[in-house]
Amino acid sequence: MGREILETMSKEYTLGSRSKHDNVVAYHGLGQDDEGDICIVMEYMDGGTFKDLILNPAKFRQIDDSRLFALMDQFTAGLAAIHKVGVIHRDLKPENMIVNFDFSKLKIIDFGIAADTKPPPSKSAIKRHQAEIKLIFSTNAGTQMWQPPELREVRTEGGGYSFYSDYFGCGLIIQFAVRRRMPF
User: Can you list the domains of the chain with their CATH numbers?
Assistant: First the structure.
């Protein structure tokens, strides 16, 4: 079991650290202590989740429309950066976005179920990568409330993940930010 967890966390670390962008949390290391506990060391952000910011009236009053739009601009910039390096997040939601204390900086976090669309450099790993891609794009994962409709029926033709799945989640998050309530 420890080996499986290490592989899962290693994948999260690899995909999360691939994008070196100001609006994607920085991954500093992956390790295992003498007792076998596995950890990922990431950048510290002191303001909490974006969901907490939007749903907490006392916090939300501290930001005006221009700051909210600036945070949404940072979110879309971070999403573009992870897509540029071939990563599909697959679980975009306000809980997977963190802000700093004065709400001037937003970062995307949690690449635990992210998908890697770039083929490996070695020919021997390509067949395994193709099988993994098929499984990733046909498996329903993530938080259902933030998923596009096609993921609810992944067995249908055209169902499954793509970069467009992240774009749908992005639109729902922007709607959530503006309306200050859950989209559904």
Answer: 45-179 (1.10.510.10)
